[in-house]
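Following the same procedure, sequence and fold were stored together, as reproduced here:

>
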Amino acid sequence: MKKKTDVFFDIDGCFIDEKYRFNIPVDELKKELRKYFGEINFHLNSNRSLKNIIDIWSQIKTNGLIVYENGQGVFNPAKNLDENAFGVKFSRENLKKSLKNLCDRVSFISTDDLVKSPEKFFSSLSKEAYCEKSRIFTATVYPRVINQGIPTENDEFTSNVFERLKKVYGEKYNLFFSKKYGNIILTPKNALKSNPMKKIAGENRIASFGDEIPDILMFQESSPKMIGCPANAREEVKRFVRKNNGLVSRKSYTEGVLDFVNYIQKII
């Protein structure tokens, strides 16, 4: 019997669109992915919090480990437990203090709900910062100006929040602004997800599929040719992938990920 191949996939940033939706039916998605489970132990590497990953991926139930929050923790779904935790907990109170006098309120919520339906967060305040409540080791901040009661993205306010966070956290954290979700992501400088990822994966292969500039860092840590990007990726990302003999899919989001998984199955 042929031994299954262990592959660590860094793909889920592209798996759903800006509104946290698959762009193909879930039943079709499950059917397509499960074709590969007999050949591949499908481990997942992600920037998301564990709760958000499970909320998204529980519908598919992949058959490997889940590496979450830029490699700060490793969860084994088969055993339903954390196997390793590399990170130091991020202080919510310090985050609130750092944004004092800049925001009327800092709220910890399920931020995917904010992205999907901002009108549900009607507010009488002027400026708010929403943070993902399920994160443990890293932080995401969604700066929003209240426009007719609805939290709305605003470039000037976001820039002000970014500069404040950079001043407070810049020595120990990398800060990245995601245009896709309108959020600011803070990750420890000594714990980029590629670093613990290499320790966890060992000699196993790493396959990365991304659409934003920081994804190039994971491409550089991936196995030869096992990189790709969707049709909606930034041009700089596409250029890097082409130059390094990866896959530039003609499809976006979920369909692009499936295109990539099919490509990986053919070259392993």
Summary: The first helix runs from residue 26 to 34. The mean pLDDT is 89.
